[in-house]
From TrEMBL:
Name the record gives this protein: Protein Skeletor, isoforms B/C isoform X4
Boundaries of every DM13 domain copy: 35-146, 158-262
Stored InterPro entries: At5g54830-like, DM13_domain, DOH_DOMON, DOMON_domain, Spindle_Org/Thrombomodulin
Keyword Coiled coil appears in the UniProt entry: no
Superkingdom of source: Eukaryota
Limits of the DOMON domain: 299-431
Position of the signal peptide: 1-27
Taxonomic classification: Eukaryota, Metazoa, Ecdysozoa, Arthropoda, Hexapoda
Entries under PROSITE patterns matching the protein: DM13 (PS51549), DOMON (PS50836)
Keywords of the record: Repeat, Signal
Source organism of this protein record: Bombyx mandarina
Length: 702
């Protein structure tokens, strides 16, 4: 903000009014602006709706897109044939996906969608955009590209005028309505109060507006030595609203250099499509954008923040282990730390790409994401990733990641507003990443356990001292447990045992729960070929509550989660029990019974329990009304040596089944077996059960 000016003397009131009006901004282009109109999607099936705009030569924006999501193999589809046809090209949405194949288009209701044309295609190369079902070669809806369409394009401007402090640059580009690209920037950094500055009038003047630097900071500019940077106009300001961009010293009202913005500007709208990597964000040390800093999670996580117009920039720093994430966001309830309904950003270092990553998450159920509910990235649920990566680094064992997100709830059903007028409750956590590089369950000690308030509108709220060390080793794992010589099993749900249980035993990330077989945490089961075994399954039968719906099945997959896999992924698994197929060839789980769970009497005591026997004394068994499902499995002679019992709807809940020939010596349970005599008194197996027999004689169910 410019300093307060001295009183104006000797001027008529009208002159004062005219002078002050110089700072009033009236946009030369009506808002909202989405680009050049292409047309409206024509609906043929499945409720297709939306208005399509050309953002630039290779990007389209669909305003208010709707689709019921019931098509089995639907995608956005483009081509140059006279009509939509199978010879088109798939346009992935969302553009950034972690799976091998692009995701099938999910349901949308009034969603704003940004599509980037693939393989270097431009709008002039195509004639239509369609929502297309590949499996049945059906066009659900389309729009045709008008002949002679001229999309908005970036505009190249001259370099900065060289006036003071060694300021110079290459030709500056207006990439979109809010984004300037400044190549080869030089500035000696000696100006005491210099900023990027935009405004109106024939020359730069004190009635301008500060523009955050490439790091999103409004601190005075540092020196630059030939760096390529990108800056974005704050709040609702666009390039159409200003006459010039300058480097301006506020204290001394001095112009170090500027470039004029032409009146006939016709650049793309700023809808998030501009993603460039500048030398300053890849090779330079991130600069602190703010003096606001708070240490949480026992001083293991530092959070820095600064409001920048209608965005908030947040920097997270922690000593993360490999394949571990840090999460931070707005609590699902005011006055307490609530995961359910929370809006968080998960940040981590992608060790395969050696890059920082951030993702916007929605928590609709306290369960692993199954593609529809749970702790899910917004994009996986058909929403948008409103967390924009700014920069990141790893140094001296500390991972630091900076991102921006809107203050407003961009998607009210998934996002929560960041308040700038008062404090609000926040949550944070550390946890492991799963095979999809998505957040898995954290331990009780690695999350906010009491109400933590943050005032995002604060200035110089700095209580940071230094990061505490993470416990790299942790307590030792409990010994692996064994079940052999047994033909009847109970299968229930229970806690994963923190740093002593599921993950250290299996080497796989845990969601925080796991199978308890005969009231033991993921024992290794030994079975003989030719024998019949019975599993009484109590993993839950309420499909509407994914946190309490865990059908049991037996597979050769060490990960499980058959029901959440795509068809091509399912074909990679061999299923031996617990899954059947309907008349149309769709799989469904068969071992679905009432819900029984071992729960904590107080807090998780895994780390404080040297043995599993001590741990189970801190648990209590709680069962819903109803009956267990009964799964009877006759082990075929052709069954492989190693299988796994798993959860049909979630990954990584089960462990090994060793298949041996009759008479083979196997380990004995011995003193590894945790006998919980009270279990049958608290929750006896019901006398009336639904019995399902699956016998594998020659081949496994596929």
């Amino acid at each position: 903000m410019a300093p307060k000016l001295p009183p104006l003397r000797g001027l008529a009131p009208l002159c004062v009014i005219l002078l002050l009006a110089v700072g009033v901004v009236t946009s030369r282009r009506p808002e909202p602006y989405y680009g050049r109109l292409i047309g409206h999607l024509t609906q043929y099936a499945h409720g297709i709706r939306g208005t399509v705009y050309a953002v630039d030569e290779s990007t389209v924006f669909i305003k208010g897109f709707a689709y019921d999501g019931t098509g089995p193999d639907a995608y956005f589809w483009v081509g140059d044939s006279p009509q939509p046809s199978p010879e088109g090209t798939l346009v992935p949405y969302p553009e950034d996906y972690s799976s091998r194949d692009p995701p099938i288009l999910s349901a949308h209701s009034n969603t704003d969608i940004l599509l980037k044309l693939p393989a270097g295609k431009r709008l002039r190369d195509i004639k239509w955009i369609s929502v297309w079902c590949r499996r049945f070669t059906v066009n659900f809806g389309d729009v045709f590209i008008p002949a002679g369409l001229d999309p908005p394009r970036p505009r190249v401007l001259p370099e900065f005028k060289r006036l003071a402090h060694g300021l110079r640059s290459g030709n500056i580009s207006v990439l979109d309505a809010k984004t300037f690209y400044i190549p080869n920037l030089h500035y000696d950094g000696a100006g005491p109060d210099a900023y990027f500055w935009v405004g109106n009038g024939s020359e730069p003047n004190p009635f301008g507006t500060k523009v955050p630097n490439e790091m999103g900071s409004l601190n005075p500019l540092r020196g630059y030595q030939g760096e390529d940077i990108e800056i974005q106009l704050p709040a609702k300001l666009t390039a159409y609203d200003v006459d010039w961009l300058a480097v301006w010293c506020v204290e001394y009202r001095h112009n170090f250099g500027h470039v004029y913005i032409p009146k006939d500007l016709d650049v793309p709208p700023a809808l998030g499509q501009t993603k460039i990597t500048t030398s300053s964000t890849t090779s330079k040390t991130p600069h602190s954008a703010t003096n606001n800093c708070k240490e949480i999670l026992d001083k293991r996580l530092q959070v820095r923040w600064e409001i920048q117009g209608d965005q908030v920039q947040i920097t997270l720093s922690a000593r993360l282990r490999k394949e571990q994430y840090m999460a931070f966001g707005i609590s699902g309830a005011e006055g307490r730390p609530a995961m359910l309904g929370a809006d968080v950003v998960v940040a981590y270092w992608d060790s395969r790409a050696n890059q920082p990553r951030v993702a916007d998450y929605t928590i609709t159920h306290l369960a692993q994401c199954d593609g529809e509910r749970g702790v899910c990235p917004d994009q996986r649920l058909g929403g948008s990733n409103d967390a924009v990566l700014v920069t990141g680094r790893q140094r001296d064992g500390v991972t630091t990641i900076t991102y921006r997100r809107p203050l407003a709830a961009a998607e009210p059903s998934r996002d929560r507003e960041v308040l700038s007028s008062r404090s609000q409750s926040i949550i944070a956590a550390f946890g492991p990443l799963n095979s999809r590089s998505e957040a898995n369950a954290h331990s009780f000690m690695d999350t906010t356990r009491h109400d933590v308030q943050l005032d995002f509108g604060a200035q110089s709220d700095n209580a940071c001292i230094g990061l505490a060390e993470l416990d790299e080793l942790g307590p030792g794992a409990w010994p692996a447990r064994v079940l052999s010589g047994v033909t009847n099993f109970t299968a229930r749900i229970g806690p994963a045992g923190g740093r002593r249980g599921y993950t250290p035993i299996t080497g796989h990330p845990s969601w925080g729960i796991a199978w308890y077989i005969n009231d033991q945490l993921i024992p290794e089961i030994y079975v003989e070929r030719g024998k019949t075994y019975t599993f009484y399954v109590e993993g839950g039968d309420d499909r509407t509550n994914p946190a309490r719906y865990h059908p049991f099945y037996i597979s050769d997959s060490s990960e499980g989660g058959f029901g959440q896999k795509k068809e091509e992924e399912q074909r990679k698994q061999r299923v031996f029990a617990g899954v059947a197929y309907d008349n149309e060839g769709y799989p469904f789980p068969t071992a679905v019974g009432r819900y029984c769970e071992w729960t904590h009497k107080s807090v998780d005591q895994a780390n404080a329990s040297p043995t599993f026997e001590q741990y189970v004394r801190t648990l209590q068994l709680e069962c819903a009304p109803g009956d267990p499902a009964t799964l009877v499995w006759t082990v075929a002679h052709e069954t492989p040596d190693l299988l796994y019992y798993q959860c049909y709807t979630h990954n990584n809940l089960g462990w090994k089944i060793h298949v041996v020939d009759p008479g083979t010596a196997v380990p004995k349970p011995g003193d590894q077996k945790a006998r919980i005599n009270a279990a049958h008194r608290i929750c006896p197996v019901a006398s009336t059960t639904f019995v399902l027999v699956i016998t594998l004689l020659n081949i496994a169910v596929r």
